[in-house]
Fold:
Amino acid sequence: MYFIPHAKSIESGPIDFIDFDSMPGAYHQVVILTDTETGSQFATRGGPANEGFLDIVKNGFGTIRAQVGSYDAGFKDSPSSVVTTQNVSTIPTDYAVSVSRAIGFASAINKSDIPYSPFGPNSNSYASTFVESLTGTRPAPTQFAPGWGESVSSSAQPPYSAPTSYYDGYPGPKK
Amino acid sequence: MNRVRNVIVVLMTALTLSGCGCMKKKLPELRSVLEKELKAGDTSGRVEEVLKNAGVVYSYDEYQNRYQGNVYDSQCGPYEGISVYVYLDDSKKMTEFEAFVSYTSL
Structure:
């Protein structure tokens, strides 16, 4: 990890957890980057790309679909949906660099078509792998988060950088 | 014991995601509205107006120069929604959008 003069330090977490009413005790992880100077936040998360019960029966759970963006009401896992927070660490990396890595990581995962499984690789595997790529460690979650120990980066290797095309790696606009 | 828990996790994940394809049915309607109302070159003000009228809870992501937003329906539950991204160019004019069903699960 490089120290960048005039860099803002960021928190690589917290990992936030979303509870499931239908799955008591199991949690979905979201990674949030926080600029310790401005308070600005950016987040990334994964989820299954399937399209309903029939798809699950026919094709399994689909691949992991990553999403990344400013952490606010417009983000898929909005702040109001978070029930528990785990602070992970503070790293001496420029916030914009970490944001770029989050965008690049999401893009790499979306291009990799990694099959989703409830036990992993899943959204918790995605979150933990990204935290590890930033901090060098994979902290054990404070909540029951199946799949957190599994890697999603078998075909998406670091360093991650933002794609040259702004929508590169996303499903893409419907033509 | 682990086997039982594994089976339960798979079943509950499937049920969480099943959602009767609720938002998938609503996706074509929303996409149709956005295709009708938005066109390349629209200002950010126009984009915001269209998103608001379409019921999209949105924000602007300065790092990716795009609007991000979601639509939920109480009948479909909190774990299934439609995610919308509207991309802008350097002069803050719309270039294109995408909308897809997104899920929250383990």
About this structure: Chain A touches chain B through 50 residues (CB under 8 Å).
